[in-house]
Design brief:
Layout (H helix, E strand, L loop, with lengths): L1 H8 L5 H8 L2 E8 L3 E10 L4 E11 L14 H20 L4 E6 L1 H5 L3 H12 L4 E2 L2 H13 L9 E6 L4 E6 L4 E7 L3 H8 L7 H24 L8 E5 L1 H13 L11 E3 H11 L4 H5 L6 H5 L1 H15 L3 E5 L3 H12 L6 H6 L1 H12 L4 H18 L8 H13 L11 H10 L8 H12 L11 H4 L3 H19 L8 E9 L2 E8 L7 H8 L2 H8 L2 E6 L5
Parallel strand pairs: 1-4, 4-5, 6-9, 9-11, 13-14
Antiparallel strand pairs: 1-2, 2-3, 6-7, 7-8, 10-11, 12-13
Helix pairs in contact: 6-14, 7-13, 8-13, 9-13, 10-13, 17-18, 17-22, 18-20, 18-22, 19-20, 20-22
């Protein structure tokens, strides 16, 4: 990955590398599930070894609502699917994709007429969809989640509740330890066991017992693969998890539009389940945050999620909006040699996604890299005197520095506010929801006014986050102020904070360099230091510099 990023910012790119730089590749992935048909159109960057989602479409086709007598796909379900796939094909072709890849899961695996329907789709639509096993489905879900989250050194439990099956994966930064699939899903449960709603307590207890029995083999397998003393991080993906996050966000004053990375506690889930169970189907459809079709199968999906958490002993889960369809893109990249090692790909996901966003918004790569390097140096030189933050906050400062002026993509006026919006609502893979908000806020306050109570960006932060932003945004101000010119003119600097005095001294790249512009720019930060923490900022040259 570092080779990719270096090539991106190297001014002496070879002609071949330049061609690759401009040679984005597009591919479409179709996930034909028991509840929905998903389409993702992705733009693959061969240089950064990454991809971004251009189009994401979903149609509720309900293939899992099979004939109750013979288990075959119904005529109505097949017609819904034909229409959705025709739409997917035309949309993909209109975006100039080089290939459409696709898989069919639980409903097609089990239906007696599933293979015949796939053959018909190949003949009529030219779509070569493959039926995959539950284990392969789990592997692709794992790759999808891997592309959007930093696994770090912790084992992760990935739970994907589909319409006809539920996949449970145990993986860490080195390997997938267990890939499992259970024949229990939201559509299957609704079809087989929910005849009258709201459910009475006896029916709820029966469903929980049935779900537990269905999930226990998968749970036992993943728990056996855990090492003594390990506490895994739980990640939940797909429709039910996204619905839970959306419903809780709708109830929250913060109501963030970004659900990826949101953490939901078992207590919050239990409370939500108790509020949802007494509702009629019509009342569920009126809920803010989910569509009508999801509301129809919400209760069994919630019970699967709740039961899985209880069996796993999980106290919380993190939401991932990446799943099987994104896993298909990663798998395509692996097969085409665009990713050599999926674990090396995942291990640098934060660095790669920041560079991807910087490039997307056309930032000056050389300059922001200097700003980022200076911000990190300031962080290191003043640790223990000006701040006491850890490596985690150091990484967030680097990301904010890399993206601090991406708002210029929209307008030069008040661009720091545009930067906040673009970062907070963008796709920063590998970062949690709260981390993404912190990065956006650091960029927001790297210039102009200090945080004010009326600012939306400030209201969304809790007390600990505000302390981080108040302090580290001052360092980002200095780092940006030292880099006003297109070229580098500062060879080194020394920052010291003693008591209430923050001293910064610069050394020019050559003895004849005039740093008056940089000193003037730095002095403009003095008021922010005084108003924010009562610091006296003084700037000058390292002794002996011209």
């Amino acid at each position: 990955m570092r080779e990719c990023a270096t090539a991106l910012r190297d001014p002496e790119l070879t002609a071949q590398n330049t061609a690759v730089l401009n040679g984005m590749r597009r591919v479409a992935a179709i996930d034909l599930g028991s509840n929905s048909t998903h389409l993702v159109i992705a733009e693959v960057d061969p240089l950064l070894c990454s991809f971004s989602v251009l189009v994401a479409e979903k149609s509720t086709t309900r293939l899992g609502e099979r004939d109750v007598d013979n288990g075959e796909l119904t005529v109505a379900a097949m017609e819904r699917t034909r229409l959705a796939l025709r739409h997917c094909r035309e949309l993909a072709r209109s975006h100039g994709v080089e290939e459409i890849i696709g898989v069919a899961t639980s409903a097609m695996r089990e239906a007696p007429n599933g293979l015949a329907f796939l053959a018909e789709l190949r003949e009529s639509l030219g779509l070569n969809l493959e039926v995959i096993s539950g284990t392969e489905e789990a592997r692709l879900i794992y790759l999808g989640v891997l592309s959007g989250k930093d696994f770090s050194e912790s084992p992760h439990l990935i739970l994907d509740i589909g319409g006809g099956s539920t996949e449970l994966v145990l993986a860490d930064a080195k390997e997938a330890r267990a890939l499992t699939s259970a024949r229990v899903g939201a559509v299957r449960l609704q079809r087989d066991f929910v005849k009258r709603e709201p459910l009475d307590r006896e029916r709820v207890d029966f469903l929980r017992a049935f779900i537990q029995g269905s999930l226990e083999p998968s749970v036992d397998k993943v728990l056996r693969r855990l090492n003594p003393g390990e506490t895994p991080v739980m990640v939940a993906t797909s429709g039910t998890a996204m619905a839970v996050a959306a419903l809780l966000e709708a109830e929250s004053a913060r109501n963030s539009a970004r659900l990826h990375g949101k953490v939901v506690s078992k207590i919050e889930l239990d409370g939500l389940v108790e509020r949802i169970l007494p509702l009629t189907p019509l009342q569920r459809k009126e809920l803010t945050g989910i569509n009508e079709r999801r509301a129809e199968i919400l209760v069994p999906g919630l019970l699967v999620l709740q039961t899985a958490m209880a069996l796993l002993g999980a106290k919380q889960f993190e939401v991932s909006d990446r799943a099987l369809r994104e896993g298909l893109i990663v798998d395509w990249m692996l097969r085409h040699g665009l990713i050599v090692d999926r674990f090396a790909y995942q291990s640098e996901i934060r660095e790669r996604t920041v560079w991807h966003q910087a490039r997307k918004f056309g930032v000056d790569g050389d300059r922001v890299e200097r700003v980022a390097a200076n911000a990190i140096t300031l962080f290191d030189q003043t640790k223990g005197s000006f701040h006491d933050f850890s490596e985690q906050q150091r990484e967030l400062l680097w990301a904010a520095a890399m993206l601090h002026n991406c708002g210029l993509h929209i307008n030069t006026s008040g661009y720091h506010k545009h930067s906040w919006y673009l970062i907070n609502n963008g796709e920063l893979l590998g970062y949690s929801q709260s981390e993404q908000l912190l990065i956006a806020s650091l960029a927001r306050y790297h210039r102009r006014s200090l945080p004010k109570k009326r600012h939306e960006s400030w209201l969304l932060l809790d007390r600990d986050q505000r302390r981080i932003v108040e302090t580290l945004s001052l360092l980002l101000r200095l780092a940006a102020a030292m880099n006003r010119r297109p070229e580098a003119v500062i060879a080194a600097f020394e920052a010291r904070c003693i008591g209430g005095n923050f001293n910064l001294k610069l050394q020019p790249c050559n003895a004849t360099e005039d740093l008056s512009l940089e000193l003037w720019s730095l002095e403009s930060c003095a008021a922010a230091f005084t108003d924010s923490g009562g610091y006296n900022l003084s700037c000058g040259l390292i002794s002996g510099a011209a």
